[in-house]
């Protein structure tokens, strides 16, 4: 029971005092996610026209409070998305076309990325056209309408925040473009020390190799080393061999 005696039920996704009547199949579900998990088709949130009160079971038009018993269906209600939930400082973003968790004043909508982002990223992120409409490269699930927040990588690609955290347990590179997903400067300096303290066998000590840097896209020649090969342009070790190994020509 919610504060004020309201009947609060809902599901694992949302707390609300009503069930949605799916316009596609006519069945009652606590939310669109519950519907989509049980059916072989998806519920169009924008087409929801009727809800059933969790207290008096009256079927009625979608609205914030029951017209029969006055039960509050949700502290927050969006008449466009038909989202009912506890107050989480949600707001409807007209540009995104859906509701976001706020507070609204802490976010801005990037028209090129087509996504609401934290104000801390204003003017500080790389834009990619409609990047939010791409699926997360880790879990392959939708990002734009996900209830999980998006994390913007330095390269501009997006991952679910939770997928980004899981990725860092296994590696440090964007799964799409292989650019470093965080500032690796300190680790590169540690690698400098390890390379200096780990000489290669004599037959490899003068071996050079062409490399391509995943961070700055520059090509350069570096001394071959099993621990890593350093970019001659930006000092990153996030590199890949871009040619065959060769020994320098002997001086006459």
Question: What does this molecule look like?
Answer:
This protein has 252 residues and is α+β, with helices and mostly antiparallel strands. The chain folds into three domains: 3-87, no CATH class; 91-167, no CATH class; 185-241, Rubrerythrin, domain 2, CATH 2.20.28.10. Helices cover 10% and strands 22% of the residues. It contains three helices and 15 strands. It has helices spanning 32-38, 161-167, 185-196, and strands spanning 18-21, 28-29, 50-53, 59-61, 76-78, 83-85, 90-93, 98-101, 107-110, 115-118, 150-152, 158-160, 208-213, 219-223, 239-241. Strands 2-1-3-4 form a four-stranded antiparallel beta sheet. A three-stranded antiparallel beta sheet has the order 14-13-15, with no helix packed on it. The longest helix is centred in the last third of the chain and has 12 residues, at 185-196. The chain is elongated, with a radius of gyration of 27 Å.
Q: Characteristics of this structure?
A:
252 residues, alpha+beta, Rubrerythrin, domain 2, 3 domains, four-stranded antiparallel sheet, three-stranded antiparallel sheet, disordered N terminus
Determine the number of helices (DSSP H or I, runs of at least 4 residues). Answer: 3
Query: Structural class per helix/strand content?
Result: alpha+beta
% residues in beta strands: 15-25%
Low-confidence stretches: 1-5
The topology string of helices and strands comes to EEHEEEEEEEEEEHHEEE
What would you report as the Rg, rounded to the nearest angstrom? 27 Å
Sheet with the most strands, sense and barrel status: 4 strands, antiparallel
Q: How many domain units?
A: 3
Shape: elongated
Strand order, main sheet: write it out. 2-1-3-4
End-to-end separation in angstroms reads: 90 Å
Mean pLDDT value:
91
How many individual β-strands?
A: 15
Task: Assign a percent range to the helix content.
Answer: 10-25%
InterPro entries: RCHY1_zinc-ribbon, Znf_CHY, Znf_CHY_sf, Znf_CTCHY, Znf_CTCHY_sf, Znf_RING, Znf_RING/FYVE/PHD
Catalytic activity: S-ubiquitinyl-[E2 ubiquitin-conjugating enzyme]-L-cysteine + [acceptor protein]-L-lysine = [E2 ubiquitin-conjugating enzyme]-L-cysteine + N(6)-ubiquitinyl-[acceptor protein]-L-lysine
Keywords: Cytoplasm, Metal-binding, Nucleus, Transferase, Ubl conjugation, Ubl conjugation pathway, Zinc, Zinc-finger
Pathway: Protein modification; protein ubiquitination
């Amino acid at each position: 029971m919610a504060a004020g005696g309201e009947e609060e039920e809902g599901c694992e996704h949302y707390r609300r005092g009503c069930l949605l009547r799916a316009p596609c199949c006519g069945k009652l579900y606590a939310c669109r996610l519950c519907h989509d998990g049980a059916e072989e088709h998806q519920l169009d949130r924008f087409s929801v026209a009727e809800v059933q009160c969790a207290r008096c079971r009256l079927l009625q038009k979608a609205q914030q409070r029951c017209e029969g018993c006055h039960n509050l269906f949700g502290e927050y209600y969006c008449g466009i998305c038909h989202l009912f939930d506890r107050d989480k400082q949600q707001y409807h973003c007209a540009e995104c076309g859906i509701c976001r968790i706020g507070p609204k004043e802490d976010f801005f909508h990037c028209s090129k990325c087509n996504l609401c982002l934290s104000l801390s990223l204003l003017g500080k992120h790389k834009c990619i056209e409609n990047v939010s409409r791409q699926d997360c490269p880790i879990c392959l699930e939708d990002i734009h309408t996900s209830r999980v927040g998006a994390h913007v990588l330095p390269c501009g690609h997006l991952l679910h925040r939770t997928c980004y955290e899981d990725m860092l347990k296994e590696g440090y590179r964007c799964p799409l473009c292989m650019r470093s997903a965080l500032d690796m400067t300190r680790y590169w300096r540690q690698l400098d020390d390890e390379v200096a303290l780990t000489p290669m066998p004599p037959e490899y000590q003068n071996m050079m190799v062409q490399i391509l840097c995943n961070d700055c896209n520059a090509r350069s020649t570096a001394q071959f080393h099993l621990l890593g090969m350093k970019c001659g342009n930006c000092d990153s070790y996030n590199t890949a061999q871009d040619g065959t190994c060769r020994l320098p020509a002997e001086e006459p």
